[in-house]
Design goal:
The protein is an all-alpha fold. It has one domain: 23S rRNA-intervening sequence (de novo design (two linked rop proteins), Up-down Bundle), CATH 1.20.1440.60. Helices cover about 60% and strands about 0% of the residues. The protein has four helices and no strands. It is elongated. It starts with 8 loop residues before the first helix and ends in a 29-residue tail after the last helix.
Length: about 140
């Protein structure tokens, strides 16, 4: 049995990023602890806001939470950048995380634009993805 937000591809990708972020920062301490904690909070905020927004009945409320999730995704990307420039990671170390975040931001942008405030998962592919990743389970476009 799944709740509605668990069926969203954007939610599943955001969970994948949250798990990756946790693994990336697991051994960071000392001077990197503040950026580590910020990345963990922001990565979890993406998932939580998608779930909360998807539970809202009002299209305007849904869209607002999806926008907050998108902001948390870009914040996560910036936190990865900070950790790279501060020497905690190399640019290669964060490549998978940045790729996942790009997908999340693209999906959330598509879900909140050009649909007159009806924030929902699209029945088509998101931007550059044309391989049914944007579909809810069981749907075919």
């Amino acid at each position: 049995m799944q709740l509605d937000h668990e069926k969203l591809a954007v939610y599943r990708v955001s969970l994948e990023f949250a798990a990756l972020a946790f693994r990336l920062v697991a051994n960071l301490e000392g001077a990197h602890r503040h950026a580590r904690d910020q990345l963990l909070r922001a990565s979890q905020s993406i998932c939580l806001n998608i779930a909360e927004g998807n539970g809202k009945r009002s299209p305007r409320d849904r869209s607002r939470f999806f926008e907050i999730a998108r902001g948390s995704a870009t914040e996560s990307a910036a936190a990865l950048d900070v950790l790279v420039v501060c020497g905690a990671f190399s640019a290669v170390d964060v490549t998978d995380g940045k790729r996942l975040l790009h997908r999340v931001v693209s999906m959330l942008t598509k879900m909140t634009s050009d649909n007159r405030g009806l924030a929902r998962e699209s029945h088509g592919a998101y931007g550059e993805w044309d391989d049914n990743e944007g579909h809810n389970e069981g749907e075919r476009g």
